[in-house]
Amino acid sequence: MISNNIEASGPKPKHLTIGRIGLYFFIITCALFFLMPLYVMIITSLKDMDEIRSGNLLYIPQKLSYYSWPKAWSEACTGFICEGLRPGLINSLKITIPSVIVSVTLGAINGYALAFWRFKGAYFFFGLCLFGAFIPYQVMVYPLLKIESAIGIYSSLPGIILVHTIFGMPILTLIFRNFYSSLPIDLFKAARIDGGNFLKIFFYVIIPMSAPITIVAVILQVTGIWNDFLLGLVFAGRDNQPMTVLLNNIVQVKFGVVEYNVDMAATILTSILPLAVYLLSGRWFVRGIAAGAIKG
Amino acid sequence: MNNSVEVKKLSFNYGNVEILKNLDLDIKDGEFMVLLGPSGCGKTTLLNCIAGLLDLDDGQIIIEGDNVTWKEPKDRHIGMVFQSYALYPSMSVEKNLSFGLRMSNTPKNIISEKIDKASELLQIKELLLRKPSQLSGGQRQRVAIGRALVRDAKVFLFDEPLSNLDAKLRAELRYEIKKLHRDLGNTMIYVTHDQIEAMTLADRIAVMKNGVIQQLDSPKEIYNKPSSLFVADFIGSPGMNFFNGKFVSSDNSFALNNSLINLNNYQFEHKPSDQTDIVFGIRPEDISVSDSKESIEFKIELIEPMGADTLIWLSFEDTPFSVRLEGSSEYKLGDVINIKFDIKRSSIFDKKTELRL
Amino acid sequence: MNFTKNIAAKIALLPMIIISLTVFVGCIIYSFVYSLTGSKLIPALNYVGFSQYERLFKSRKWDVAVENIFIYGFVFTISCLVIGFLLAVLIDQKIRGESLFRTIFLYPYAMSFVVTGLVWKWVLNPTYGIEHSMHLWGFTWFELDWLVNRDLAIYAVCIAAVWQGAGFVMVLMLAGLRGIDEDIWKSLSIEGIPKWKSYIFVILPMIRPMVITSLVLIAAGVVKVYDLILALTSGGPGYSTTTPAMYVMENFFSRANLGQAFAASIIMFISVVCILAPWAYYEFYFRNKEAKV
Q: Looking at residue B263, which CATH number applies to its domain?
């Protein structure tokens, strides 16, 4: 209580309230909970098996040991093949890069056509396409596999790229359409009056303005496709298995001694790329989430 | 008459920028005070400081004899009406009005009594069950005022409540606020950048610039005797005409190139010395068509009919200026007319200090 | 209608139209048709009526899968929304290091489900995991054997999923909170409404669209859950954490029981429609109607 009220002058004296302390206590506790698995993952990968068996999960390693990393990278076994995660990295890159390029391009064209060149029925198909985003993969996996077999690309690189393009299309079309719809329509009208056609306006007016949404879309797709497991498992074929599938195979291997440090090193290796993208892109990643969730 | 609100030596900084500088302001009980100024002049900051929404850096605020400098907004005897009205969109009008009371566990019968009284006064009885989204701009404003009413606020604060509206509605709501002030008699502090609102509503206007009150006076005084070039320029539409020239003390006149205007009828507050750079200001309505011998001949360069008035544009020694004539006047472009300045109603400023002479 | 009018746009949207029709619509029809057959290893059109569905509903494993998806769906959705909202509110309190906290709460969302599953599998490991740590610290009564407990394993899945998804909800809610008109807060402050009451009675109703969007996105994700469980429990112990998605995948790829898989996938599809329909109705019909008033 302020007893001598008449004297009150200048800034209100600040004191740390119990609420404020509680707030920080709670949020720091939450942060520790969220960080704990990452921390455990890292320290486990730096311990040797003796320490893992005898020591405390949450303690930092007494003796650093790095052998789990090269082992996870190039020696860990999935069944009878012992090549580590390395082939998975190459495969993941071979899948992710073309898939991102193709799907983002398609999304941009779709969004552009829907935002500026509406024709009767276009929005019916757009609705259908959005609806597709909610259909569980399991409903589509088998028939899609049949379609791909029929055209001869099942279990191949083009096969998995096509699948990622298909399943990325709804969200990408949506965010590009929303972005283009937010551009001033007068710009488009002016371009029309200057004689631009569908392609010219797209190349000379729209693409130069698309940088922000393209960054968002690329981040969304890179992390999404890199992290995919199910589609890679079914459609990529044995020779093109992405990192996530290999990781699961390495960790879930049913025979031999389980080496938790190798498992954790492999897990970290698999998540380095999406984590790096997340940390480096920061606000763009968040924008991607918001862009995907806000409907136009 | 007692002071309702006293602001003493108030300073407010934002980072290293001084927004309000050692500002004093006394507002009388029942007074309608308008804080007027361009954006960034600190008027909204001042209002927020009075409301307790911003923590001041120095000084005191006293409301209804209570030093509220360190008090929470709710303990300051104030109600506030915002630019966006800030009605709670999910609640009906009735719930909007009673929300604060319900949250402080006011007995039900008292709540309904207060809502009855406020809704009667504001004529929103038939709107009580509607949602804010179903109300017109004027109705929203009344609900926002009603929210302050049910709190028994002694002082009403208005933060540019009309600036989002179109011209017609604005005039309508201005009238309503004025009427409400007449009926309630509460102290009201009203922030705006619109000088017409300020002129029509205020008992007194505080014209602000860069965190300092430039002039604090009745609308009439401010209009007729602006204390500085800034105030003279800011108030009035169409604006005051200004001519840059020199003072000639030998024959007490204003000299612009080869022309002289005699200033014998002007009441100087401070007489300038010879050859001082001065600004001669005169409002368009203080210039009249006349055939008397002091009149000067001009050719009409532009005509702007405005309905009730007609504005004609002339040039005096290459400085364009406007003259306000009756709407019925029938002059044509290129006509030559004789006009006369009403020197008694003009304003003269020191060019360097920009203050009234 | 002139078909050649706006022909460029029509050509440009052709891939979208073809994919929507063949994949999204076509696959559902295909699955439904074959769910009425007795297909085993390869799809065959030997119609058996709805007997695949009858078998499905009689299957003990399917029962467990459905029960699991309800527990998982309920616990995960509610926890995610509550924790996500709470985190958003905390971050909205003008705290120091806001962006650091936001980064920490969201990073799990950038990770693969497989990674999430494997990490939590290790953390919850009954021999060397958290339980072991607690024992070493002297809390010998502490038990965290969920992964090997048939009744609790599904809750372990929930923890991992909330860990991954709460940040996502937080981002959406925070976007909603940041969109609140500053005047509303000032008004609440003048009326002297305590913060927590403000959030519950005024702010939460105002960000209702964001809450509903989060709810729908999360709920639609619930039905799909597959990778996470595969990595964390492989459906075990026994088949105690199996889900409809796993049931479908198993029947497709390891049990060569296509008819069953199709029937189960159609049930999954119907449940998604049941989640989406009221939302779509609200979004596109009710809202438009409200806007017109």
A: 2.40.50.140
